[in-house]
Amino acid sequence: MMKVSNGKTIRRLGWRSMKAARTRNLIAVLAIALTTVLFTSLFTIAMSINDGFQQSNFRQVGGFSHGGFKYLTEEQFNNLKDDPLIDQWGMRRFIGMPTEVPFNKSHVEVSYADANEAHWMYCDPVEGRLPQEGTDEAATDTHVLELLGVEPEIGARFTISFDVDGHTTTQTFTLCGWWEYDEAIVANHILIPESRADAILDEVGTVPPGEDGMTGSWNLDVMLKSGSRHIANDIAQILESHGYQDQSAGAPDYIHTGVNWGYTGAQLSDNLDPSVVIAVASMLLLIIFTGYLIIYNVFQISVTNDIRFYGLLKTIGTTPRQLRRIIRQQALTLSLAGIPLGLVLGWLIGGQLTPAIVSQLNGVVPMTSVSPVIFIGAALFSLVTVLLSCRKPGRIAGKVSPIEAVRYTEGGGIKRKTKKGRRGVSLLSMAWANLGRSRGKTAVTVTSLSLAVVLLTVTVNFTNGFDMDKYVSHFASSDFIVADAGQFQTGGDIFNTDMGIPQSVIDEINAQGGITDGGVIYGQTFDALEYVTEDWFRQNKEHFYTQEQMDNLIRLTGRNEEGLLADRIQLSGMSDFALDHLTVLEGDLSKLYEDGGRYVAAVYSDDDYGNPEMDSHWARLGDIVTVRYVEETEYVDPDTGIAYASPEDVPASANYVAQPVKYRDVEYEVAALVAVPISLSYRYYGADEFILNDQTFMQDSGTDSV
After folding, report:
1. Is 303 exposed, middle or buried (0-12, 13-18, 19+ CB in 10 A)?
2. How far is 570 from 111, CA to CA, in rounded Å?
């Protein structure tokens, strides 16, 4: 068999065949463009919703860096920042927070941030600029200026008192820039030069990271070269490359890290399961199949019309493979015209449809994505669809013999029984008969029309299926929550009797009318202990102490008769309304609705994505929890054995162990394991937490602070 170089001839045949059927070419280009419009508009809408959803998440997170490394030393910061996996980095050093009026209801942080970090935290001045080193300048947002009673004018002076690692300082700054306040962002910022930050730390005598473990320390936020697809893995790899880890807290090589949960890529990788993969794959296959049928119809009709031409080509020696190449060449040539047209029209249509769809998704920022992924993805999908669509028509052209081609008619191989009837010929009967000539073609046409309706229905259901109540339930459990301002302030005071809501306020609220349901949560204002094993004591506190500090803490911690270690315990009493909003992980809450019942629910933590962390508590279903309600305590020096009435009486150079001398022990059975919405929680952590029935709580503790 001799090979002949005839590629140029085949291309010429294909091109001339196309020129002879201009109307068909126009229809084919429109079909390809229509399919590309479908892909592009869907991708534009999907990417725009994704980008808008991410922006809403970023505002709640407080920034859009991929992730970060927290509470570093300067040496650790310099080691990590130039890692090859990092595309860009930003640095921030937290200095302090004001908590007194007028900032008792606003979370404001005083810190240094470089230009990258400021941008990622949405601190881009709309007027002025960021502060310069060696000056007393500061930049902040309009809300902070409003609280201070300062007009937003460059050069304005303002004075603010704030806490720095337990020390109060008062500082005066010159305003150098400001940005608009965004109520969705958790924290307001006052940004100062790093030189001023160091001066304030020196003034109050704080050496980073301070007694709180974070003041003045270096925080490194990063944008990764690989994007947001696997942030956690990249951050772990960066740590490993420099001899650090983020799993065993308290170890010398431990570094605390964070992953920005606002990125849908991070959420998807965290929640990826077979059902999600199947749903996404099914949707993509449905879209591709719909486009395939549209273009397949056009090429099938084209081949049917030109079947005699292909038969004649076979009589002069054209092989089936060469016929398939002619059809594929025509398809690719038509794609060069149809795909770009479809990309432009699809993006314009998607951009117009996105605001209408996003308007149904409250809380999503309206925006039209211009991601290259839209155009690259739509073009590839369209090209693959075209190539798939011309495969079968190409096989039909390649298989037909020259003799069959001359007498070929659509559906000609099917023999049917005919029967005589008295009914005459009508438009309906002619249409029905025409549909029966090629049942395969009829089935394809009906299927393609049906799939278009299916796609529309799926899109409508997706849009209407967004449950705003479910989305908001993670952040709020009721329309209003009333508490002391300190309850909502990050880093605020531990709940105490002064923070309780007076009954007169509760009565006044109820008298307003319009309340359909509600309830109260009673907070702990008394000393209470549990006794736990040393292993759990270490595990529960390893995030806060080094190994040496932990050993010393255990030495200074009291034990009971069984040798178990005394530990703080966090209790709350919940009415039925609050209990209804708990997420039950295991067990049954029904026993906690019984007034006076000796049952508790053990509170478990969850991660940024709502997944319960089942190692965050020692208690399991059916366990007995002994709560020691402490009424009187003495403070004993373990070295001398001398007891003191209060910690203030202990000499500054001495240590002490707190020992209960008057107390009541009450036993409870664990009826359920639960997660508590943040809106109903204490908003601080560090102790094992249990929930009681509200009446049981008041009866056993003798307190009733709401």
Report:
1. buried
2. 32
Count Cα neighbours of 210 within 13 Å in the Cβ-side half-sphere. 24
Return the sign of the alpha-carbon dihedral for residues 42, 43, 46, 47: negative
Contacts (Cβ under 8 Å, ≥6 apart) of 481: 679
What is the spatial distance between Cα 10 and Cα 395, in angstroms, rounded to a whole number? 17
Helix, coil or strand: residue 231: helix
End-to-end C-alpha distance for the chain, whole angstroms = 95
Three-state DSSP state, 90: strand
The Cα angle at residue 502 between residues 500 and 505, in degrees rounded to 5: 125
What distances in angstroms separate CA 55 from CA 121, 437, 512, one per listed residue? Answer: 12, 55, 37
Q: 163: Cβ–Cβ under 8 A, 6 or more apart, which residues?
A: 96, 97, 98, 99
CA angle, corner 519, sides to 513 and 524, nearest 5? 140
- CA–CA gap between residue 389 and residue 296 (Å, rounded): 4
Taking residue 289's Cβ as centre, other Cβ atoms within 10 Å add up to 16
- Give dist(CA 63, CA 493) in Å, integer: 26
Q: Return the pLDDT at 460.
A: 66
The CA distance from 335 to 301, in Å, is 17
pLDDT of residue 137: 96
| Beta-bridge partners for 187 | none
CA torsion 412-414-417-420 (nearest 10°) is: -30
Q: Which two tokens stand for residue 225?
A: 């070269």
| pLDDT at residue 121 in the model | 93
Report the b/e string of 528-549 with b at 16+ CB within 10 A: bbbbbeeeebbbbbbeebeeee
* Type of residue at 586: E
User: Which whole-number Å values give the CA distances from 354 to 125, 362, 368, 505, 696, in the listed order?
Assistant: 29, 13, 7, 45, 53
Q: How many CB atoms lie within 10 A of CB 64?
A: 20
C-alpha to C-alpha distances, 336 to 23, 43, 230, 399, 494, nearest whole angstrom: 17, 20, 35, 28, 67
Q: Looking at this protein, which amino acid is placed at residue 649?
A: D
What stretches of 136-291 adopt beta strand conformation (E)?
Answer: 137-141, 157-164, 167-179, 188-191, 218-224, 256-259
Tokens of 202: 């020196």
Would you tell me how many other CB atoms lie within 10 Å of the CB of residue 168? 13
Return the closest-CA partner of residue 299 out of 320, 328, 342: 328
For 608, phi then psi, to 5°, come to -60, -20
Q: Which residue has the tokens 């209060």?
A: 646
Q: Count how many Cα atoms sit within 13 Å of the Cα of residue 184 in the half-sphere of its side chain.
A: 13
Spatial CB neighbours of 458, under 8 Å, sequence gap ≥ 6 = 283, 286
Amino acid at 237: Q
For position 324, what pLDDT does the model report?
Answer: 75
The whole-number pLDDT of residue 375 equals 80
The 3-state DSSP composition of the chain as helix, strand, coil percent (nearest 5) reads 45, 20, 35
Q: What is the C-alpha separation between 377 and 356, in angstroms, rounded?
A: 23
- Give the separation between CA 216 and CA 197, rounded to whole angstroms: 8
Residue 174, strand partner residues: 137, 157
Query: Cβ(36)–Cβ(377) under 8 Å?
Result: no
Handedness of CA 496, 498, 504, 510 (dihedral sign): negative
Helix or strand holding residue 474 (H, E): none
Q: Residue 414, by phi and psi: left (phi above 0), alpha (psi -120 to 50) or beta?
A: beta
CA–CA separation, 621 and 200 (whole Å):
50
Residues of the chain with pLDDT under 50: 1-2, 4, 412-416
Given a contact cutoff of 8 angstroms between Cβ atoms, the answer to whether 378 and 46 are in contact is: no
Give pLDDT, residue 269: 59
The pLDDT value recorded for residue 2 is 44
Residue 385 burial class via C-beta count within 10 angstroms: exposed 0-12, middle 13-18, buried 19 and up? buried
